[in-house]
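Q: Structure tokens for this one, please.
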Amino acid sequence: MDTDIAAVPRRRPWPLCRPCCCVALDLGSARTRAWVAGRGLVLDVPTVTFPGAVHPVRRGDIVDVPGAARMIDRLVGRRLPRLTRPLVVITAPVLSGPGHRERVRAAVRVLRPRSVLTVPGARGVALAADADLSLPLLVVDIGAQLIEVVLLVDGAVFDARRTSLGTADLGDGVAPADLAGTVVTMIDSMLRQDPTTLVAEALGRGALLAGGGALRPDLVHRLTRELHSPLWPVPAPHTAAIRGAARILRSAHAHPSTGAAPRPV
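A: Here is the predicted structure, written as tokens:
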């Protein structure tokens, strides 16, 4: 059964008309989230499709395109106006190649989008945190099945590491110390291979922490101790990527390359 999140506070709506229909999607390994212009965050449910309770996304990658398409149609399609052709902004893990982007586009084709933009989830996290993107920024995203460490410079990905491990692995021979050690190893690798001082500069100011791992005090405390640096958990860290994608959605809506109609005043 689908479970909608609680309604967001009332605000001046972004008109939900056919020319202005815009959707932000975060297809996570554990949860799928959707943001619809004018309505806010309308969906936060397990990433699973039926029949058979199949998980179409694993370790950050779409492994079942038809299944993902059915899930998107069932969960998102019915929440959009009929006959609409939405602008879609969808988050993607860093270091995802062209193959992943093709699978994403194939899955969301069920919404008949007029344009699809993929954005790094780490950039969404930074925007959700209102981070100063004029300075080098380190983002640590500890998800259910994937850990990403990303250095953003001027808002763009400058360096990144990822590993197929996450909070869903805890208790299955994996302890919080293992997750923390993995993050430390990834950052150490970035420090060693950085010909500049950007990683050290960003780490010195403290990294942004997002994903479900940011909700575990034991993991946050261990990381802070082992990195000898502050960590700044993003508010509501498990939904940071989709909230940042929604901000990108607003900017993309007005860009001529998307083919969007002028935004009503």
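A few notes: The domain at 18-123+240-258 is CATH 3.30.420.40 (Nucleotidyltransferase; domain 5). Residues 184 and 227 are 7 Å apart (CA to CA).
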